[in-house]
Design a protein that fits this description.
Helix 7 (about 140-150) packs antiparallel against helix 8 (about 160-175). The protein has helices at about 10-20, 20-45, 45-65, 75-80, 90-105, 110-130, 140-150, 160-175, 185-200, 205-215. With about 220 residues, it is mainly α.
Length: about 220
Amino acid sequence: MTDPSAAPPPDRELMLAAAPQAARDALRTLFKLDDRLAGIVRTTREPMVGQMRLVWWHDALERLDTTPPPAEPLLQDVARLLLPLGVGGAALAAMTDGWEELVVTDPLNGEALARHADSRGGTLFTLAGRLLGAEPAVLRIAGQGWAYADLARHLTAAALADRASAEARAALSQAFTATWPAPARAVGLLALLARLDLEGGTPLAKAWRVARFRFTGR
């Protein structure tokens, strides 16, 4: 769960560099929205307060489909950069449901992790693919695996972290059984890097896998 006040992580920068210039600002805004939602969960001390903040974002995003954005810079960027490219507010609002699972489910369990991985990662990758002009079915499973891997790094309960890691490995392995179409490979790099981090290996080996994926989609 990335700190939105920090510089974009290297994998994000690699994704943006691999994406067409015309899509970069929109992709950057999409992932900034995910960062903002992550920040709410990370800073929440009272579950009810965190839930209320996420509900505000959910409703504000949905309203973008019918009304002008409020004086909130990120929502204005969403309306300006994402809506014209077919990424609607209601679709974006689904991401808040995944983050809400981490706030309201106590104690966390495997079912909550699965709902989080799908609503956050599955939605995020699917919408990123839309911005890139490609929506292969593999995007959703790759996004789930990416979200599981990210969550595993932040869970303090060892058993849940292990489960998230196992689910990440399974989803990411499935995501790379088929050839990725060229337009979707930029966002696919995020999933590939998450898989490589789980597998370990030398930096040189990882660089070779990344280069091969960019050229062949496998």
